[in-house]
UniProtKB/TrEMBL annotation:
It comes from Triticum aestivum. Signal peptide: none annotated. Belongs to the TrkH potassium transport family. HKT (TC 2.A.38.3) subfamily. This is Uncharacterized protein. One of its GO terms (cellular component) is membrane. Keywords: Ion transport, Membrane, Transmembrane, Transmembrane helix, Transport. One of its GO terms (molecular function) is monoatomic cation transmembrane transporter activity. One of its GO terms (biological process) is metal ion transport.
Length: 445
């Protein structure tokens, strides 16, 4: 969120902002945490080794002063048993230390590759696109300044752009939008999936035992790294992100094809809708004026902004090793229960549906048909309260001479479809005690 226009900053000031965005990015901060953990584990390993050397020296002195009451065979067997008992914890600590070190290198490689390849790709596109070069020239921005600043901002999910209009100035540059989409995803919502793929590739290429161990079992338990998720969770995370983005793209294209997307070609409309949908989760770059979007889309964007980055539809139980019921029954009931959503999710869906049915009234009579009035009406129906904002003819922007104030609730002015949806909301509110356990298949962290 910028409080001043971005074009007032000089190149030096933009460089300072770039450094701040890079060091404040979540991936970089987690990399610093990994480096700190590896340094701490290495110091602990050094201390334990010195303690073992001192203990062996003490044992040697004690053996020299102790009479030889045991034969060589007994001594060898005792030494072998003591080594076996002390080997396991030492190997576990060493494995964890090496795993943290290798994971740090993988994360560092991802950060470097994302910024180098992203900056180079954006600069190459600007050089190849006369329209993009013309836009930067009118803003007195250098190509590499724009490329580096945009890459860092997008990957760190900051949302700043070195120009005033954000990405609205590049709404026709679909190639640039498609270059920024993977940067935004890899720096936030799909970072665990990208990290799991890179760790598996590194394990297959190097066959290092710590990397193989991370792919064989839960790497988060081994390294303590929050972003390292199991393979199945990563796959479901990618599917969830794709599903949520697809829903947003369909909503934007369906409701704004002749509205906010007016004047573009079909491919440009789809590209802009995809770009805004991806950025609605956490990045915040936009090619459209959000104030011109339909309220139903804004409610959906609010829901997307509310969700944590690693929100996943995961209809699987964590492996506990104990099965109380037959597999078929468990899988069937689990799949059925996983389709249930939380109460808040259903309310958001109802509000979006009513905003769609009352879209014409929202445009022509915005003071009465405000989004807040609809939210109050839906919440009142859900809680079976009965409060209503009402309707006033004096608040009409274009006064209707036939309009008369009546002692009816706000819903009395809705369309038949909107009233039917509100009836469903009231029934859902009456029966809400039967759905309080819904939404457990959605993992928010």
């Amino acid at each position: 969120m910028s409080a001043v226009e971005m074009e007032v900053f000089s190149d030096g000031q933009l460089f300072v902002l770039t450094v701040l965005m890079f060091t404040g990015g979540e991936v970089f901060v987690s990399l610093v945490g990994l480096a700190s953990k590896w340094s701490k584990l290495r110091k602990q390993g050094t201390i334990s080794i010195s303690q073992r050397v001192e203990s062996h020296d003490d044992e040697g002195v004690e053996l020299e002063t102790t009479p030889q009451v045991a034969n060589a065979t007994d001594t060898d067997s005792w030494t072998r048993n003591s080594d076996e008992t002390s080997k396991s914890p030492i190997d576990a600590k060493r494995l964890r230390r090496e795993a943290v070190r290798s994971l740090s290198l993988v994360v560092l490689a991802i950060v470097v590759a994302a910024h180098v390849l992203g900056g180079a790709a954006i600069a190459a596109y600007v050089y190849a696109s006369p329209g993009a070069r013309r836009t930067l020239r009118s803003k007195a921005l250098g190509v590499w300044t724009f490329a580096v600043f945009t890459t860092v901002s997008t990957f760190s999910n900051c949302g700043f752009m070195p120009n005033n209009e954000n990405m609205a100035a590049f709404r026709r540059d679909t190639g640039l939008q498609l270059l920024l989409v993977p940067l935004a995803l890899s720096g936030n919502t799909l970072f665990p999936t990208l990290l799991a793929v890179c760790v598996r590739a590194a394990a297959e290429a190097t066959r290092r035992p710590e990397l193989v161990e991370m792919t064989a079992r839960n790497g988060r338990e081994l390294t303590g790294y929050y972003h390292l998720l199991p393979a199945r969770r990563c796959a479901m995370l990618a599917a969830t992100v794709a599903g949520l983005v697809a829903v947003q793209v369909c909503m934007v294209c369906g409701m704004e094809w002749g509205g906010a997307l007016r004047g573009m070609g079909p491919w440009e409309k789809v590209s802009n809708a995809l770009f805004v949908a991806v950025n609605s989760r956490h990045t915040g770059e936009s090619t459209l004026d959000l104030s011109t979007l339909a309220p139903a889309i804004l409610v959906l964007f609010v829901l997307m902004m509310y969700l944590p980055p690693y929100t996943t539809w995961f209809p699987f139980e964590e492996s506990s090793g104990v099965k109380d019921h037959p597999t078929e029954e468990t899988q069937g009931s689990r799949l059925l229960k996983s389709t249930a959503l939380s109460q808040l999710s259903y309310l958001a869906i109802f509000i979006i549906a009513i905003c769609i049915t009352e879209r014409e009234n929202l445009e022509e009579d915005p003071l009465n048909f405000s989004l807040l009035s609809i939210v109050v009406e839906v919440a009142s129906a859900y809680g079976n309260v009965g409060f209503s904002m009402g309707y006033s003819c004096s608040r009409q922007i274009s006064p209707d001479r036939l309009c008369t104030d009546r002692w009816t609730g706000f819903v009395g002015r809705w369309s038949d479809s909107g009233k039917l949806i509100l009836i469903l909301v009231m029934l859902f509110g009456r029966l809400k005690k039967f759905g309080m356990k819904g939404g457990k298949a959605w993992k928010l962290g």
